[in-house]
Amino acid sequence: MSVGIxxxxxxxxxxxxxxxxxxxxxSLAAMLPLDALQLADSPRTxxxxxxxxxxxxxxxxxxxPIVVHWPxxxxxxxxxxxxxxxxxxxxxxxxxxxxxxVEDAFIEAVRLNTSRGLPLTxxxxxxxxxxxxxxxxEWSDRLIASAAGVTAGTVxxxxxxxxxxxxxxxxxxxxDGRLRPVDPAEGRRRAxxxxxxxxxxxxxxxxxxxxxALATARDVRERMRRGxxxxxxxxxxxxxxxxxxxxxxxxxxxxxxxxxxxxDVVVTGLRKDPSLRLAEAGRALLQMxxxxxxxxxxxxxxxxxxxxxxxxxxxxxxxxxxAQWWLEFAEQLERSA
Length: 337
What we know:
The chain is of the alpha+beta class.
């Protein structure tokens, strides 16, 4: 279990000491000689901060355990504590273990050094993003950003400039561990083909085979039923026209499917109508109609990046619920015409 550790640390006298030396990252701290540690491959590009080492050495309390990669014994987090312990004249230090690949150990080092202690510099984090992109190109921008302490937009910019990704990846792993298509339009088109070829298949099966979320597959199906392109305008490349699918229903000015370019014109015209502007309910309606205009381009990306991973499902549910209410409102208006 931990024979190598037992030889490096103090001889274990009891079963409790054996347990303390377990390299599982969850056990109590073990003791290791300072000379057994490997001080290499740090995410800090400028090396050790001597003043921070002296500050730690002067503390009158024990230093927190460092994190060490098992089995290389490379210090993942705590290089400054190692130097401070040596400056105090001590020869051993408390450690906790991290199990994983060398590449994962580096990511853990970046994550820990951005969340506590002496923070990484902007240059350190940019260099870390570039390295993680090279070892984990399948990770999403949000997932890498959460480890490196930067924004997803920063990761995306580095990814676009990077030449460290020779192969084209069709999916990326998100913070929730799920794989999603890099090009959402491609996944939607695959789902549309599958829905046409296998109309009796379950949505869950369609979503799995197309490599998209269940909610996305449901949206594709609903768009096809309305005779719309399964790919929304925001996901289509500039200049690519919509491709209707299924029987199209007649469109009116208020029907769903109004092109984004037309929506600005429609809402601007409504704002100029005094019969709406002078009524309290009319003003409220104009304000609500203006909100969706923000959900495009850079502003939409900012709003997407602002949603934490553990709240994505809730926001998606709320957004789809709002869209459904708007659809029902539009249909009420059509019936009253």
